[in-house]
Write a structure and sequence with these properties.
Blueprint: H1 10-17, E1 23-28, H2 31-44, H3 51-55, H4 57-69, E2 77-81, H5 88-98, E3 104-108, H6 111-124, H7 131-134, H8 141-151, E4 159-163, H9 164-169, H10 171-182, H11 222-226, H12 228-235
Helix pairs in contact: 2-4, 2-5
């Protein structure tokens, strides 16, 4: 699985990993929702009550990924991209469905840099960034709290946290970590030119998921963008470094 925090290099990492001929990284995927709704049919439908039908749930769920992903790719390794995977309830759902814990790659980045990146991209779109409005819900708050709760739970070993600065400055070392984490042979990627094969929806914000073809760190001065007070506030949110 591929989760993480927004503006932390998820699209860049997806594009790099998709160079591997045996790996398919999805765009934002509905599979966790499909799995969740299918799992709960057995509990919500009062007509599904016989022993044989109840016993069919696990075998059926374990066939579901094959049915779904075969419509998207014939590559044997799938990395499903959706930040909701990092929530405790979805980790537990995965374990109940497939009998093992998921492996979730999570790019993270200093929260002050994430917010500054949002401010800049909104400014380029001539939109004023409303801190209270834009950081609530799916944009940031939900995935942040899900990752924080899971990281501080008994599921910490499900995660490989990938720091944005490491991804752009020590890319080869990060890839080696990832391949070790998902337990497949290391592939030699082309890090001189990176491009996205399947663009993400931009939700009306142009450039939201654009990546540079050359891997390089953002030069944004977050303190200058946010001001001292906001910078200090968001700097205190980096729970995984404490």
């Amino acid at each position: 699985m591929l989760g993480g925090l927004p503006r932390s290099g998820i699209t860049l990492l997806s594009s790099i990993l998709n160079q591997n001929p045996i790996i398919y990284v999805t765009t934002s995927s509905p599979f966790v929702e499909i799995l969740w709704r299918t799992f709960n049919v057995w509990e919500e439908d009062t007509d599904v009550g016989t022993h044989n039908i109840q016993e069919s749930r696990t075998p059926f769920l374990r066939k579901l990924p094959y049915a779904y992903y075969s419509e998207l790719t014939d590559k044997p390794i799938i990395i499903d991209k959706r930040r909701q995977w990092q929530g405790v309830t979805n980790i537990e759902l995965y374990e109940k469905s497939f009998g093992v814990l998921p492996k979730i790659i999570c790019p993270v980045r200093s929260c002050e840099d994430i917010v500054a990146s949002y401010v800049n991209i909104y400014k380029k779109n001539n939109i004023e960034f409303d801190y209270d409005k834009e950081l609530t819900g799916n944009r940031f708050e939900i995935c942040y709290n899900q990752l924080k709760d899971s990281f501080n739970s008994g599921y910490r070993d499900c995660f490989l946290l990938v720091e944005y600065n490491d991804l752009v400055e020590k890319t080869e070392a990060v890839l080696e970590q990832i391949y070790k984490f998902i337990d497949i042979p290391l592939y030699e990627h082309n890090l001189d030119y990176v491009f996205t094969t399947e663009p993400e929806a931009n939700h009306g914000i142009n450039g939201l998921h654009d990546i540079r073809h050359v891997i390089e760190k953002s030069t944004t001065n977050s303190c200058r963008v946010l001001g001292d007070e906001q910078f200090s506030k968001f700097q205190d949110w980096n729970f995984w470094r404490k």
